[in-house]
Batch of 4 targets.
Target 1
Amino acid sequence: MRFLIAGLGSVGRRHLRNLVALGERDIVLYRTGKSTLPDDDLEGFPVERDLAAALDRTPDAVIVANPTALHLDVAIPAAEAGCHLLIEKPVSHSMDRVAELEQAVARGGGQVLVGYQYRFHPGLRQLKAWIDSGEIGSIVSAFAEYGDYLPAWHPWEDHSRSYSARVDLGGGAVLTLSHAVDIQTWVLGPARLIAARSQVVPEIAPETESAAILMLEFGGGTPGVVRMDYLRNPKVHRFDVVGARGSVGWDEGTGAAFLRSTSPAREVVESPPPGFDRNDLFIAELEHFIRLVRGQAEPVCSLQDGLRTLEILDRARGWGAPPSGPSEMVS
């Protein structure tokens, strides 16, 4: 199996290291050379600066890991060429051209996996299993929170000019920290955006929002709140759901999921296996992607899943004006 990795920033290099760890060596790198990281760990792999030349090497699978606003520039031609795609989250920075991507995928016949790797977290999978089995009854409300201090992400570069802080590259807390939205819709189902408010903090990210709060509504009117920011240090990433007969929750800090049931009364805490590490999510994602390419699995996060989340994000990015009314159901 031949892989093409498009974009060799931090996440592209993580995928490269993990592919090698999984025994894959037939890997081509497509890059512009704008990464601020040294090139030592890229030695020994063929590099192309032109996408057409990279696709002429006939990769079976393409990992789209360049800046968000540039995803579709790679994904659409790769899909047309019949490649299977792992597209880093979110699918793009807006809904523009997503129909073109869908058409290219249909013509090319490849599979698509969107890189929301927290769907592979054992704690979140346990939480979802509890909800799906009715352990806490009908859902009353949900809250997801993702806060992480942007200046600490990449100490080797000026955080205010990193892709996460640049409008032209698809930065901003809403898009970059969108795991919090994907987790809610994965666990609870289709949602619509009711309201969104964001704030620019110039010393953190002068061009994009550094904090945002989204209000979602799930089927039956169940409310869900999502809070995202570039300000919290240490990092905060958690999710909890209240039901008619109890509650469930998850915290990335411990990795554990908890269940507190009132009928019958019981409390359960499920921790990840010993030695569990965040990189295990990316390894599990790549293992799943390889099975997908081989026709042995269906995508855990499909293109349609990713586009449902992107539609919410795209609507939420109009943070300056008051909402004109509820949006249509995103289903």
Target 2
Amino acid sequence: MLFPTTRIRRVPEVTALFWVLKLLTTGIGETSSDFLVKTLDPVPVVLVAAVVFAGSLLIQLSAGRYVPWRYWLFVLMVAIFGTMVADVTHIVFEVPYAISSAAFLAVLVALLVVWRRAEGTISVHSIDSRRRELFYWAVVLATFALGTAFGDLTATTLGLGYWGSAILFAVVFGIPLLLHSLGVAETLTFWAAYIVTRPLGASVADGLAVEPARGGLGFGTALVSIIGLVVIAAVVAVIQVRSRTARG
């Protein structure tokens, strides 16, 4: 069966390693997208990315349970393909970052409200059915779109640059984590931190990759992407082995 209906956990537990991988995938998604679009013909690149994105989604949904490599493969494709779509929205359609940020925020809030009314909870610990997982991924996509637009807004429109934005979002990212440690609503603090991972990871990756004239260190999108992908693959491989060992 393509989409199993057994009600078991379909997403990872929220640990320190979860946040590390989330930040890595968002950052490497940014630099990988920039490298592919600027090095190759952008039209076929985006089309191929869309096909891989759809395929990775089917791979994730068909598992019916949390499988590390499937989950993080799709998260990475969300980062890569989502960056391409966000860039098209701004460059091709000339939508200002302030407007797109507001629009994506409205979409995110609407999705969370609908999810809450339909399922009675938006807790990440409750993703144990196909419908809840679909709500989860819809919200993940919305947080990515919002984070992308808002990160570009602070770095370019507001003039903070990549490292200024990285510092800002690092502070903002730490606030919900601190509140969570103090017992503040876990679901609220999780989604607040989750949104910020996108602009934080992308700001750091861009700061490492872009040339000094643009405020970066100039390592290049290719090198940053390759190193990041190797690190991600290694960490996911370790998690995959541990997951299999835990299941016996």
Target 3
Amino acid sequence: MKALLVLLPICLLMACSEAPPSPEAPVHRASLERPSPAVSPDDSLFAAYWYRGEAELTSYTLEQARYGEIHPGKAVLIFVTEDFSRTKQVKLDRPEQAGDDRVKVLKLNLTKTFNTGIYPYSMMTSVFTPVYAREAPHTLKVTTTSQEWCGHTFTQFNLRDGAYRVELRSYFESEGDQDLTLERVWLEDEIWTRIRLNPDALPTGDVRIIPGTMYQRLAHRPLAVTTARATLTTLETGERAYTLTYPDDDRTLTIRFEPAFPYAITGWEETYRSGFGDRARRLTTRATRDRSMMLAYWQHNRRADEALRAELNLD
């Protein structure tokens, strides 16, 4: 069996010598400019971690707010770099033949599974953020799916002609099938990949942003641009934290991560009003890091490989 790499020792070995900024650093109004990563993609440190032909898999213990209650579950973050088509916005089958259409992205697959009473939820968001900001400064694509026993939904963002083209497919009559065009602003869903590339380039202050697609699905909010207050701080634990506060939705999202490269995400908290009618109440969804490994998981698809799930504490 392939040796499993635990992230903590890796992070300690790769720790940057620079101290993280003080939480009292001045706040600036967010810009759509995307600075290059703090650790350059051409740097041997970055390449040794992200270009080794493996994915970073991290499991989290999930406490998910839904229907005015907290439900136990599991979340998984899967980060991996891959060659992406700039025009088709899909993974390239033959990247060596793609020429200028080829763009290197850091892909995130974020999954959540939890039960609400008798029936299960399975949700997944995929984010495709270019690694080389000078070549492609904006996240190119986001997709989110949600499946439960009532039905399933699909949402997709594609960056085309300077705007986000959005498709929403839902089994709810009030949502139906929608095709929208939204302004090219920050996406909450891309914050996760931006943290891994360069947290110091995250926007702070008043940010024009499109809220996360999983939240929009669970809360049945319309897809729209809004304003959030963003802060980047250092916690007493030594972790850093990026917080988005949405005054219009009375909602706060905080993502915690390690202060040194590769900026592994240690957990997150999301507080908002959950439930409908007399079951509605303000609750907090929490995810706490459980276990991590580096693995070319696509090569481990035999029954014997199911033991790897136990090592991630997924069974």
Target 4
Amino acid sequence: MRTLLHLARRFFGWWRAGRPDPPMQLWIGSCLGPAEARLFWEQPVQDQAHAAAVGAYVAQRRPERGDLIAAALLHDVGKAASRLGPVRRSLATVLGGLRLPMPRQFSAYRNHGSIGAEMLEGVKAPAIAIAFARHHGGAQAPSGVAPTDWTLLREADHGA
């Protein structure tokens, strides 16, 4: 049920979200390397707004953990590959949940975690950023990731 509420908030939040404001833009730039920042800014503004909120959530709780903040900011970068808006994203989610065949763009959206992880590997992002991009739909921390770090990132993603 929490997943459905999360998806509904994201769907309706899409329509009012905008590019992060200038102070937030400066903060994001200070948290990411140049190649990571390029990936961040290539996302649709709605995904930027969500990622900025997730990053701020993590930064409030663990400001000394730049790797966790980067993971929060970058976890959805793979969504940009699908080039889908909110209605087609929702349709992709439904088709995937029903295990029905879907167009390539929809598959790219459904596989955004793996796509994003590959993008992050290409820019040598922190290991936790790659792991969170690849597995952020999973409840259990993947091997090599501290459960407390994983819990914080998932709380941030679902709360922001």
